[in-house]
Design brief:
- The structure is a single chain.
- This protein has 87 residues and is mostly helical.
- It has two domains: 2-49; 55-87, no CATH class.
- 61% of the residues lie in helices and 0% in strands.
- It has three helices and no strands.
- 0% of the residues are buried.
Length: 87
């Protein structure tokens, strides 16, 4: 439904809010998928593969959504980037 709403005429603030909602929903779906994967691992039904970690931009997008919620509660949220690790 968010995609349908994004295809309508919206002001900039409405569009930003819907885009954050869409990104949050996509991340939630990824978390649910991860939980299901862990269940498969514990059951011995999943093979693991080594993959490169997501870029710092992913963390920035996550923090953007969290910052919106913090602002709604009158809070200031500050974060710094983490050092890059090599795997």
């Amino acid at each position: 439904m968010i995609e349908v709403a994004l295809d309508t005429t919206l002001d900039a603030e409405q569009r930003d809010c819907l885009q954050i909602a869409r990104e949050s929903a996509e991340r939630l779906l990824a978390v649910i998928g991860d939980i299901l994967d862990f269940s498969k691992i514990e059951a011995g039904k999943l093979d693991l593969e080594k993959v490169k970690l997501q870029s710092p931009e992913s963390l920035a997008q996550t923090m953007e959504a969290v910052c919106v919620r913090a602002q709604q509660k009158g809070l200031d949220l500050l974060w710094t980037s983490i050092p890059r690790w090599s795997i």
